[in-house]
Amino acid sequence: MRSKQYILALFMILTVYQGQELQAQPLARVAHSSPVDLVNPLVGTLSSFELSSGNTYPVISRPWGINSWTPQTGKMGDGWQYTYTATKIRGLKQTHQPSPWINDYGQFALLPQVGERPFFDEEQRASWFSHKAELARPYCYEVYLADYDTRVRLAPSERAVVFEVDYPQTSLPHQRWVLLDAFDSGSEIKQLDSCTLVGFSRKNSGGVPENFRNYFIVRFEEAIDKAYLHSSEGKSGTHAQIAVSLKATEARSITFRVASSFISQAQALQNLEEVLGKSYQDVRDEGRNEWNRLMHRIEVEDEEEKSRTFYSNLYRSMLFPRRFYEITHQGDTLHYSPYNGQVLPGYMYTDTGFWDTFRSLFPLVNLVFPEEGAKMQEGLMNAYRESGFFPEWASPGHRDCMVGNNSASVAADAYLKGLGRVNTNELIAALEHGANHAHPSIKSTGRLGYEHYNRLGYVPCDVGINESAARSLEYAYNDWCIYQVLKRAGAKPALQGLYKKRAMNYRNLFDTETGWMRGRTQKGQFQTPFSPFKWGDAFTEGNALHYTWSVFHDVQGLIDLMGGDEAFISRLDSIFALPPIFDDSYYGFVIHEIREMQIMDMGNYAHGNQPIQHMIYLYNYAGQPHKAQHWIRQVMQRLYSHAPDGYCGDEDNGQTSAWYVFSALGFYPVTPALDQYVIGVPYFRSIRLNLPNGRTTVIEAKGAEYPYIQSVERNGIPYNKTYVQYQDLLEGGRYIFTLGAKPSSWGTNPEARPYSFSREVAK
Questions:
Q1: Does 171 score more than 80 pLDDT?
Q2: What confidence tens digit (pLDDT) does each residue in 341-360 have?
Q3: Cβ(701)–Cβ(712) below 8 Å
Q4: What is the pLDDT of residues 520-550, one digit of tens each?
Q5: What span, in angstroms and rounded, lies between the C-alpha atoms of 309 and 657?
Q6: Which residues pair with 438 in a beta bridge?
Q7: Is the pLDDT of residue 250 over 80?
Q8: Burial class, 366, CB count within 10 angstroms (exposed 0-12 / middle 13-18 / buried 19+)
Q9: How far, in Å, CA of 44 to CA of 254, rounded?
Q10: What residues contact 158, with CB distance under 8 A and at least 6 apart?
């Protein structure tokens, strides 16, 4: 680092000697005249292994972009690639990371430098930076690299990016470098012509075929003068890096463009066409317009602080799953299959875990962005064709993470809403295969323990399968989803009857003695010893107090098991009334999900993780919707913000953000794959849903500062149901909520309650 300091000092001396004034060019600022400019991409970046405040990073991208860019503060290969407390940037990285736990793939990074020779070591090359000299927007990123007195700006298209770099005014051309790091694991870089570098990155954390490569191209506007190739060998393969300086030029600013492709080097060149002939400002404006075009689907009116949090959450709801397809010169849609390594026609999406996102992220996409949801559904079918299974966690191919067969929920929700060009018979075959098979090598894909589940009605806790109760409860809901598809398709009655029966399997785990869901042995005994406070074991990142509510499709059935409305309400109340007691013996340490529950002062309610996020809305099913309204407001006001610690746990690919977006609208999809959304309480004075069918649904809240619904009107007519219909939202109209400081009797009539499967079965 001495050489950098020496050069900077020399520049200062020369500047003073020449009588020139150093003029720092401020980072570009924009007025808050559009939704995307209210977004803070740094929300959720104040994270660590021990305590998550989101575990996010600034994703600089187009909506659902195949490639994203981020400043890299962490070490090469570190899942925590950007943390708010970091002080140095090691590179500006193309990333495809969905979460720090899953990590990245196909990544590479660039970093401008100043000096007589470039630095390749990531510790030596890292430059100090400050958030005060950093601008992060969804469509662009700007930062001042203090050690190099250099300003960097980048703006991405869908598959390419434009970089603009301002070097120190007194630096000489041969002292201005651009470093390209293709990371380890078998990378390659070479100079193609006087202005162009090409290569590929094979860096990954799993889920890729043998022939996986992310091919990239870097094209400068000036010819390359010097190039230093730095290649090293390690256990994981070749680590290729190159640093180039450009031929002498009077300009202190340079522009270069980068593109990549998972298909081929030729396709990377084709993808570069997205930004050729365009300036940084051009691409920046294009990206801003695209984000605004889509974000205007939901227009909120209220104080700016609330709007900032809302649009920051909407932004996070529009990143994953990412597009994994490319467009040829002829306009054809192709994708590299992360399942079989072939280049095939059609859509492909990846980087999402359905255990998280089936709950509200996909329902949000299917309601607000149905054209994207349709392509996601077609991509899901391609994943089945290419691997024999729907993915449960994809990044980019199958990954062994989490539990459940929740692809059934994702596929069913899209199918029942008419999204995607899908062959019904093929969809049913895919759903049935996933329900009755386990992937040969990826435990999270298909249904681990399906033989036991199909025979006993649950996965036993004593057959060597962890998290057995969680799996069983989710399988029962997944069976209900499959039944809904079969019913809509008019499948044979016997097949419908099979899944209709299995959808009630959740009852097999309810222990009437304790009043909670509980693991069960092959012989039918409930698991002992038992503590409802024990995390893990029979459950996934939660305990019995959290997972007992995972009966998304039949809340009335759960009410009946608990002994009626009063007993059910008492159980719900207890979650908040209990102190944050926990048993971490299964893990042997306090996992961050436990700690997040403990410190939020909401008893045993753990909003920082997904299993319980729908629970608050269940008060509607037992005649006390005012308690749902109270706790929804508490969560929104206390646990979310637009600050770096703006989440109360892992954001998880848009799920925790989508909860906020739905809850701000005033309703939530407790039962995905159903045409109902359960009413909570709207958060804004006015919200407009501008749907792509040309219709508009307006949601007004009179007295929005208060949490309790006094009355509701739809198109001027009193509305007493505690749910809204999907079709009604599509038709457009106006919902007017009158809110007050005290609970009312609105929504307490038993006829106002949302759907439950038990009622359907009883008819």
A1: yes
A2: 999 999 999 999 999 999 99
A3: no
A4: 999 999 999 999 999 999 999 999 999 999 9
A5: 10
A6: 446
A7: no
A8: buried
A9: 33
A10: 62, 65, 66, 67, 274, 323
**229 CB burial (10 A radius; 0-12, 13-18, 19+):** middle
Of 228, 154, 234, 159, the residue nearest 191 (C-alpha): 228
Taking alpha carbons only, the member of 241, 9, 223, 260 closest to residue 125 is 241
3-state secondary structure string, 619-675? Answer: HHHHCCHHHHHHHHHHHHHHHCCCCCCCCCCCCCCCHHHHHHHHHHHCEECCCCCCC
* C-alpha–C-alpha distance, residues 108 and 72, integer Å: 10
Cα–Cα distances (Å) from 79 to 14, 76, 180, 439, 674, in that order, read 42, 9, 20, 26, 36
Question: Do 627 and 573 touch, CB atoms closer than 8 A?
Answer: yes
Look at residue 467 and give its three-state secondary structure: coil
Name 297's Cβ contacts closer than 8 Å, sequence gap at least 6.
368, 369, 689, 690, 691, 692
Read off the pLDDT of residues 110-131 as tens digits, 9 standing for 90 and up. Answer: 999 999 999 999 999 999 999 9
Tell me which amino acid residue 541 is: E
Cβ 597 vs Cβ 580: under 8 Å: yes
Provide the pLDDT for residue 33. 60
CA atoms within 13 A on the CB side of 377: 29
Residue matched to tokens 């509305």: 719
Rounded Cα–Cα distance for residues 198 and 382 (Å): 30
Find tokens 């009116």 and name the residue.
301
Which pTM was predicted? Answer: 0.95
Residue range 592-642, pLDDT digits in tens: 999 999 999 999 999 999 999 999 999 999 999 999 999 999 999 999 999
Q: What are 659's two structure tokens?
A: 């909860």
Q: Which residues contact 554 (CB under 8 A, 6 or more apart)?
A: 480, 503, 504, 506, 756, 757, 758
d(CA 347, CA 375): 6
Structure token digits, residue 697: 């649904």
What mean pLDDT comes out for the span 483-495? Answer: 98
Output the six-digit token pair for 618: 């269940």
- Answer yes or no: are the C-beta atoms of 712 and 718 closer than 8 Å: yes
8 Å CB contact between 308 and 642: yes
- Coil, strand, or helix at residue 408? helix
Calculate the average pLDDT of the chain.
94
Omega of the bond leading into 396 within 30 degrees of 0 (cis) = yes
3-state DSSP assignment of residue 345: strand
The type of residue at 676 is: Q
CA atoms of 619 and 623, how far apart (whole Å): 7
In 454-513, the DSSP E strands lie at 510-511
d(CA 545, CA 571): 9
The token pair at 90 is 């090691």
Q: How far apart, in whole angstroms, are the C-alpha atoms of residue 68 and residue 350?
A: 13
Tokens of 562: 């608990």
Question: What pLDDT score does 235 carry?
Answer: 86
Which regions of 382-439 does DSSP assign to beta strands (E)? 393-394
What is the sign of the dihedral through the CA atoms of 245, 249, 255 and 256?
negative
